[in-house]
Amino acid sequence: MAEMQFMTHDQIVSLLQRFSEEGTVYAPTIVEDQVDFSSRWEAGELVQALKRGNSTLPPKDLFFPQTESIFRFKSKDRDLQIEPADPEEQKFLVFGVRPCDARSINMLDEVFGGPDFEETYYKRRRDNSVLATWTCVEPDQTCFCASLGCGPGEADNADIHFTDVGEGAVVQPKSEKGRQLLQDFGSFREAEVEEVKAAQRVVQKAEEQISLQAPVEGVDDALTDRFEDPVWGEVSASCIGCGICTYLCPTCHCYDLQSEVWGGEGVRYRCWDSCMFSDFTRMAGGENPRPTKRERIRNRYLHKFSYMPDRYGFYGCTGCGRCLAHCPVNIDVIEFLSRAKGVSPSE
Amino acid sequence: MSEHLVPQTARITDIVKETPDVKTYSVQFSSGEAFSYLPGQCAMLSLPEVGEAMFSISSSPTDSPMEFSIKEAGSLTEKFHRLEAGWDVGIRGPYGNGFPLDMIRDKDLLFIGGGIGLAPLRSLINYCLHHREMHGDVHIIYGARSPQDLVFKRDLFENWPECERVRVDVTVDAGDEDWDGPVGFVPPFLEELDPDPKGKVAITCGPPIMIKFVVQSLDKMGYEHKDIVTTLEKKMKCGVGKCGRCNLGSKYICLDGPVFTMDQLDKLPEDY
To answer: Which of B77, B88, B253 is the mutation pick for testing A, counting most A CBs within 10 A?
Structure first.
């Protein structure tokens, strides 16, 4: 198969429909004027949904669900029975993922996989899924992916990448899974040179639209030994601890384990948690190493821009801009990064 | 790769009341096969209808059964304290790095414990006493709030002092009418005893504030930070460095710790 293919919008829709017979397709769907990934996507609205900006929620919950059952338990008198939850083996396709969000999944692969310990729950979903990315034709005003080595047309870890050129899309399979998807479910033809050029122009135009820049280069060094810096009190002053930044962040991955109990039985489930919440680190007996929003915001920013580079070799930020767009008190990660670097003696 | 968040079940075979708020639980795995572990490692214990928490294993891997000493502090431990022998609990592990056994080999060992902080130290003390020829002199300094808050009294006053080249010194913050031993906080007590740093590794665990002052005392006494070992605790959920709670800088206490040398901690943010 040659590298660049072409599919009309109708052919794309029918690819998704054909895949739906064997697995689940999650695609951008307009719900109450908001775009989110849904298995109830509408064939007639797909192209329209794809033309909008990025989804409000990143697609990370398809791999790391907001809640998932871990085991069932039954306690009767003194006896305890534990039974692992049935593993989800459903194959699925995530279609229309923006390159920044694909990059975040690449990061989560390292976090949940990585050399230290590989989590089955996440890995199983990744193995069972195909990641289809879509060039971000209309970047939002809050996008700054270019500063983080990402871009509207870059999707290194996608299985297959689509760039809309009007009547259809130029399609680039990038992995064996992507090639297989096309072979098994797609109707397509080889892309004409003009179509490939048109796709390049679309990417270029999108790149030009991203004007927001974040001064991340070297910020990990600039943050070294800044644990007691006054900047933490300043950047956290207006925080109301709502947790929206962590909820919408495509790379945030903190979780909690909780139980739902009825009578003597119940389910132990894993759910998203937020380092912005006061009880996140509070121990039995009341001791809390991060008792105020100062320590909590400090940990969040250092985690993204110092600890993750140290542990994994990359910043825990893709420049998707969601925290910037949705913080109710306008806490601005770019402003923080500028301040962090501005007062750095290393600059 | 396994379903690592799913515990096994284990039965409580014995409960010893150590103090008014600490009990030691012996557990036996329902599968008949306990996981193997190192001194200083931890495990997640659960009563799934209430919750789950990380506890250090207070027995030595050279001994059986596995033991946990649990202080009543929150809703889970409160429920634990109402259990009786014969009840099942959930258990998964082991977690963490454990004590640096290579580093302490052939060294004289100074253990400094406070309160329930003696639990992880006890695992290593009993391990060292089992492999007596592998270590030099053992000096155990321990303190608690009051005589009735001393944990592992049988070890402190009977088992350990009877061992060869073992010295045990016990203090309490405040005595009572029956107490005729030393009275005072652990750090000044340590300075008063003044054990020579030469050829020695100091291993300390206790309330964070005690550890802080013990390290200051050890500094004064000439101990180098590479020869001071401590074990930390933070709230934990996963045990494998993913859930995001127990980090100190880029290190996770559950995975890279809980045992660190002061040398290592000096390079990490003081986020504990």
So the answer is: B88
